[in-house]
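W.,

You were right to be curious about this one. When I first looked at the sequence I had no strong expectations either way, so I just let the prediction run and decided to look at it fresh. Below is the sequence, 261 residues in total, followed by the output.
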Amino acid sequence: MRVALQVTCVNDAMFPDTGKAVVRLLRRLGVDVDFPSAQTCCGQPMVNTGYLDEAVPVVRAFVDAFAGYDAIVTPSGSCAGSARHQHSIVADRSGDPRLAAAVAETAPRTYELSELLVDVLGVTDVGAYFPHRVTYHPTCHSLRMLGVGDRPLRLLENVRGIDLVELPNATECCGFGGTFALKNADTSVAMGGDKARHVQDTGAEVLVAGDNSCLMHIGGMLSRQRAGVRVMHLAEVLAATEDSESKAPGPVVGARAEDLP
């Protein structure tokens, strides 16, 4: 099967190791993965702030870049949710029937990583090895918009060497919410502080989630508190093996993901 990676803006700009981990993981599972160089933003920032007309060319670029693939995978519940639920709203508003038809093709073939692994590939044991104490935060869009349920946890439970511990009040929002963190900074900080405290209560070494935007928010809180807890995307844990050069997690900031292997 031919799968296209939609790496997301945040990962491309700040967390390129996540995209690379998706490629390593899927290729290890025998999947033919492409990285369409014409891809841009999914359009979610425009839609969420009410700029639906401005999102039209962005959605058009998305469907053009990802046309013809069996599946589109993105390491973000947020961006997968945008493609599956928001693109049709933008396309209908545009009045362009060709765009609406193209969205009808790409939207149902867009999957968050855990959905692709469990529902499409039918695997929960990906051969990963990660000997660390880990807790998992279910991000809001993956939980509420996509309904990924326990798929990420099922994948983590099958990682060899992992000590997976439950996160108290796991389903509470971390407070990031994209522009919410800017428009409602005090509330966002308070919510993030609660989440960081719950993470520390687990005694985990590593906080894992499926969206780096949320990990960036919570990780900032943990860093300022000198908590000694690091954050890591689900893809990087699942891509880890005994042969991995480094099993100590940590985001790499500043490079772009254009040269994915």
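Here's what jumped out at me. The first helix runs from residue 9 to 14. And, maybe more interesting for your project: The mean pLDDT is 91.

Coffee later to discuss?

I.
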